[in-house]
Amino acid sequence: MKKIIPILLAVFIISCQGNAQKDEEKDRQKQEQFEVSKTDQEWKAELTNAEYKVLRKAATEPSFSSPLNDIEEPGTFVCAACGNELYKTKHKFMSGTGWPSFDRAIEGGVAYGTDSKLGYQRNEVHCARCGGHLGHVFEDGPKETTGKRHCINGIAMDFEPEEK
After folding, report:
1. pLDDT (tens digit, 9 = 90+) per residue, 78-115?
2. Residue 156 CA to chain centroid, in angstroms?
3. Marked catalytic residue, from 79, 82, 127, 151
4. DSSP code for 41
5. How many Cβ atoms are within 10 Å of 149's Cβ, its own excluded?
6. Which of 18, 35, 145, 156 shows the greatest Cβ crowding within 10 Å of its Cβ?
7. Annotated catalytic, 16?
8. What is the C-alpha separation between 149 and 153, in angstroms, rounded?
9. Rounded to two decimals, what is the model's pTM?
10. Residue 125 near residue 135 (C-beta atoms within 8 A)
11. 79 SS3 class
C-alpha cells in the first residue's frame, strides 16, 4: 500500500502537465512575438474555419486543392490573416507537390521556426507580421536559383494582381 500512494501521486502530477496547458502557453508566447497579435477567439471570428486551422493551428490543406496553384500572372501573395506581403509570382514555380511553391520569400515577409510533428524536424515558415503558419521550406527547389522550395498552403494566402 505504501508503494501505491507515491505511484498514484506521480500519475496525478504527470496528468496535470497535459498538452492543453503547453499549447496555450505556446500560443500566448507566439502572440507576444508578432506585430499583429490577437486572441484565439479573435482569430476564430476573423478567419474561415479552414484558414484558422492552417494559419493558427498549423494544419495542412489537401494537396492540389488551392486555386493559387495555377496563378502565373504578375502579383503578390499576401497573408490571408493580416495582408502582409509574402511572395512574388516571379519566384513561384511548379513543384508538382500540389501546393504553391516559391524559391524565395519577399525580404522580411516570413519568419522561420521548426516543428517535429511528423517525427523528424522540418523548417516551418510563418508570416513575419502575425505569426500565421504558412507551410515549410525544403532543400529540393530549383538548383539554378536558391535550391529552396517554400511549400505553402494556398488557404494561408490571398493573391493581389500587379496593377497595370
Report:
1. 999 999 999 999 999 999 999 999 999 999 999 999 88
2. 8
3. 151
4. H
5. 21
6. 156
7. no
8. 13
9. 0.80
10. yes
11. strand
